[in-house]
């Protein structure tokens, strides 16, 4: 059931519906989801203006997630980003449900690198409980989250954990897993390039993962 605030927010977004842009956005996402046709800058501007008089809360998230148009899921993630410092340990259940419900890279990556990464730092016991479980899950989006949650940790990266999680999926034929491995390695190479180069050279990774993992280092070398 929708609440009054969400009803009001939906009306604002509906007033900006653009069918032609929606068609292009849906095509970009392989026509898996319907869209309103609202691009990111406008979507965030609308939310920012709305929140001036309507303080957001986490109860909005599942309500928005259940709406059909993809922008509403992105709005939910924007809200989580705004209120993440108020989230509690048991909110990981809400986040996990978002990861596995209507999943694709556009929602999973924002949750993994921003919300999950933050919660796992704030509540280390969550990392111990969930990251290993997700890495061994049959759900590729939970696997991807486990590989990516440390993306912005830099010097605080648990290198052993990162490499173990990558090796558990090194032979995966899933594009989104191979890409996640490369992305995680590429970001970590900015902090510890020697370690990443040694890891890539000493392990049998998929070509996509290797290429993506070395991309930043190769570009730096060329420049």
Describe the fold and architecture.
This protein is 68% helix and 0% strand. By secondary structure, the protein is mostly helical. The mean pLDDT is 96.
Topology record:
Blueprint: H1 4-14, H2 19-28, H3 40-51, H4 60-65, H5 70-83, H6 92-100, H7 105-122, H8 124-135, H9 140-148, H10 159-168, H11 175-189, H12 193-202, H13 207-222
Helix pairs in contact: 3-5, 5-7, 6-7, 7-8, 7-9, 8-9, 9-11, 11-12, 11-13, 12-13
Give the key terms.
223 residues, 13 helices
Outline:
The protein has 223 residues and is mainly α.
> Can you write the helix and strand succession as a string?
HHHHHHHHHHHHH
Mind summarizing the main beta sheet? Answer: none
pLDDT < 50 runs, ≥5 residues: none
Helix proportion range: 55-70%
> On the 0-100 scale, what is the average pLDDT?
96
Note the gap between the termini. 55 Å
Gyration radius (Cα, Å) is 19 Å
Structural class: mainly alpha
The helix count comes to 13
Estimate what percentage of residues fall within beta strands.
under 5%
Global shape: globular
Number of strands: 0
């Amino acid at each position: 059931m929708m609440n009054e605030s969400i009803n009001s927010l939906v009306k604002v977004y509906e007033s900006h519906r653009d069918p032609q842009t929606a068609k292009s956005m849906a095509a970009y996402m392989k026509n898996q989801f319907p869209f309103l046709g609202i691009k990111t800058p406008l979507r965030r501007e609308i939310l920012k203006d709305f929140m001036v008089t309507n303080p957001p809360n986490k109860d909005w998230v599942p309500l928005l997630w259940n709406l059909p148009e993809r922008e509403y899921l992105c709005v939910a993630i924007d809200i989580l980003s705004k209120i993440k410092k108020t989230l509690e340990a048991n909110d990981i259940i809400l986040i996990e449900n978002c990861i596995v419900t209507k999943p694709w890279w556009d929602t999973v990556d924002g949750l993994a690198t921003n919300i999950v990464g933050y919660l796992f730092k704030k509540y280390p016991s969550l990392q111990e409980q969930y990251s290993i479980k997700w890495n061994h899950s049959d759900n590729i989006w939970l696997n991807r989250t486990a590989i990516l949650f440390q993306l912005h940790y830099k010097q605080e990266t648990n290198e052993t954990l990162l490499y173990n999680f990558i090796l558990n999926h090194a032979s995966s034929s899933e594009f989104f897993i191979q890409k996640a491995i490369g992305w995680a390695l590429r970001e970590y190479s900015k902090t510890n390039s020697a370690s990443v180069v040694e890891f890539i050279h000493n392990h049998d990774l998929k070509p996509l993962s290797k290429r993506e993992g070395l991309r930043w280092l190769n570009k730096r070398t060329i420049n």
